[in-house]
Design a protein that fits this description.
The chain is of the alpha/beta class and 320 residues long. The chain is 37% helix and 20% strand. The protein folds into two domains: 197 residues, NAD(P)-binding Rossmann-like Domain (Rossmann fold, 3-Layer(aba) Sandwich); 99 residues, UDP-galactose 4-epimerase, domain 1 (Alpha-Beta Complex), CATH 3.90.25. Strand 1, helix 1 and strand 2 form a beta-alpha-beta unit.
Amino acid sequence: MKVLIVGGAGYVGAPLTYKLWRDGHDVTVLDLLLFGGESLLPLQDQERYRLVVGDLRDEVTLDQVMAGQDAVVLLGAIVGEPASNRDPEATYTTNQVGAEKVRDAAKRHSVERFVFVSTCSNYGISGVEGAVAEDAPLMPISPYSVTKVAAEKMLLGSVSEKFHPTVLRLSTAFGMSPRMRFDLLVSDFTLAAVRDGKIVIYGEQFWRPFVHVQDIATAIDMVLHADIDLVSGEVFNVGSNANNTQKIDLGKAVQQVLPETQLEFVERNEDPRSYQVDFTKIEETLGFKAQWSIDAGIRELAQALQDGVFPDPTQDRYHN
C-alpha cells in the first residue's frame, strides 16, 4: 500500500511513519517541519520512503504528493489548546481549511481511503454520566477542537462510493516518540517528578483518557487495512477504558514509580475539559485493544529521563 502521511514527522506521526515503513508500505511524508525533521532522519535515503517539506494548505504541493497514493492519513494540524489559542487564524486555515484542501486533492487523485486524526477534546465538558461514546454531543471549547469538529463534519459529509473517510478521536497521547513532547499530562507529570521531585496538580478531580503513541499507530494501521465497509464514514474513539484516569490518580501513578515524589494540589472547580470516553466500538468493530497502560508509559519515560536521554527537556522543540 502507498500511504501519504500528512504531518508524519510529529509526536504521533513519527511512530506511525516507522510502523508503516517497517511493515513494507511505501510511505510519503508531507510535513512543514515546524519542530524539525530529526525524528525521521534514520529513514533518509531509504527505499519506500519520501519526505516532502511543504504546507498542507498548498494545493500545488498536495497534487504532487497525492498522485499515486492508495490512502491518506491526515495528522497535520495546529495541535492542542495553548497552540491554537495563540494563533486562532492559523489554526483555522490549517485545521479546517487545510483539511478541506487535503480532502479535495485526495478526491482529485481518486484516493479512496482517508483517515482523519481528530481528538477526544471535542467532547469538551461532558454532560453525560460516565464514559461517552462516539454519538455523544460534541462541545468544542477552543479553536483546536472547534476546527477539528468542523473538519470532521466536512469529511463525514463527503462519503461516497469512491471516497471513504474515517475519523479517529484520539485520547491524550503519551509515550516515547522520535519527536518527543513534554507538554502533555503524562509526560509533564513524569518530568516534574524526575526533575523537581514534586507534581503540582490543578483540578485533581477532573478526568482524561490516555493512549500511547504506539497504540495510536496500531489503530491507524488497522483502519487502513480494514474492510472498507467497516470504516467508511465511521467515527472511532481511540484509547482504552482502563486508561480513563482522574488527574489525582495520574499523580499517584507517577508517585508509585518515583516514591519520593510529592503531590501538591491546587483547587480548581472549573476545568475546560473533563470527560471519560468509551472505547467499546473500536474494540468490537476492529478488534483493537490498547497494549500500553499508563503505568508502563510512566516507567518507560522515567527511565529515559533518568538515563539522560533528554539532556534538556525544557527546550521549545519538545513543547507545542
